[in-house]
Design goal:
Layout: H1 2-6, H2 12-15, H3 40-48, E1 55-59, E2 62-65, E3 69-70, E4 75-76, E5 80-82, E6 87-88, E7 93-94, E8 98-100, E9 105-108, E10 111-117, E11 122-125, E12 128-134, E13 139-140, E14 145-146, E15 157-160, E16 163-166, E17 174-176, E18 181-182, E19 187-188, E20 192-194, E21 199-200, E22 205-206, E23 209-210, E24 214-218, E25 221-224
Parallel strand pairs: 2-5, 3-6, 4-7, 5-8, 6-9, 7-10, 8-10, 9-11, 10-12, 12-17, 13-18, 14-19, 17-20, 18-21, 19-22, 20-23, 21-24
Antiparallel strand pairs: 1-2, 15-16, 24-25
């Protein structure tokens, strides 16, 4: 465990391949993912206004690549960018401030709010993702959600062993590194950070920092992949 902590697994450079999102500049000079959340809206608007002819503005502050597939029943509020070959399915609810990367899938009854989905992310069935960042090729199983407000409504503190990181924010969801798999029906509690390449068992309640390249069964059972 000491070796994993030395890797600084909760820093942006450890969690994400920053070449796999159109708004990679948002991460410049920001060490931790929660530092990015308050800037998503402004970056989406700035980026959207400079997109080329491959994109169309389909609603106020909503830009979609011409190859994207968007169901007529989806509800999308800007600012939002829907990138190349992304799919927004029946009854998806995008509440605003959402970067939906290339080849992403936003599925039936999935709700997004103030999020960055890196390229190839899948949130395909009944997911809630709020105030969160999901890394390249991460996947959330059916019914898994990010909880972004503590029950006592206090500011979110991220805990990694003896380390405590004050986010200064009331609303913080989860940060999934690249290639994370979250099992069906899991709840990622406020301030959860899951290192890249990790698998979370179905029906898990996850909080704090989960090391990269591990298998999470419950808080007392986290095994490193071989």
């Amino acid at each position: 465990m000491k070796e994993v902590n030395n890797m600084n697994p909760i820093k942006n450079k450890e969690l994400f391949d920053l070449t796999k999102t159109r708004i990679s500049d948002i991460f410049k000079n920001r060490e931790y993912p929660w530092e990015v959340l308050e800037h998503i809206s402004e970056f989406l608007e700035k980026t959207g206004e400079s997109l080329g002819d491959d994109f169309a503005q389909i609603a106020p502050k909503v830009w979609a690549h011409k190859s994207a597939k968007i169901a007529p029943t989806a509800s999308i509020t800007g600012p939002c960018i829907i990138d190349e070959e992304a799919e927004v399915r029946h009854c998806a609810f995008v509440r605003g401030c959402a970067m939906i990367g290339k080849k992403c899938v936003v599925g039936n009854s999935t709700e997004l709010k103030n999020v960055i989905l890196f390229d190839n992310v899948q949130v395909p069935h009944y997911n809630y993702v709020g105030d969160s960042i999901l890394g390249y090729k991460s996947h959330m199983g059916a019914g898994s959600i990010t909880s972004n407000v503590k029950s006592d409504k206090k500011l979110v503190v991220i805990k990694d062993g003896d380390m405590r990181y004050e986010t200064g924010r009331k609303k913080v969801g989860a940060f999934l590194g690249d290639n994370v798999e979250v099992g069906c029906g899991s709840v990622l509690n406020p301030g959860t950070v899951i290192g890249s390449g990790t698998n979370v068992y179905p029906l898990s309640s996850v909080r704090g920092v989960v090391p990269p390249h591990s298998i999470y069964k419950k808080a007392s059972e986290v095994a490193q992949k071989r």
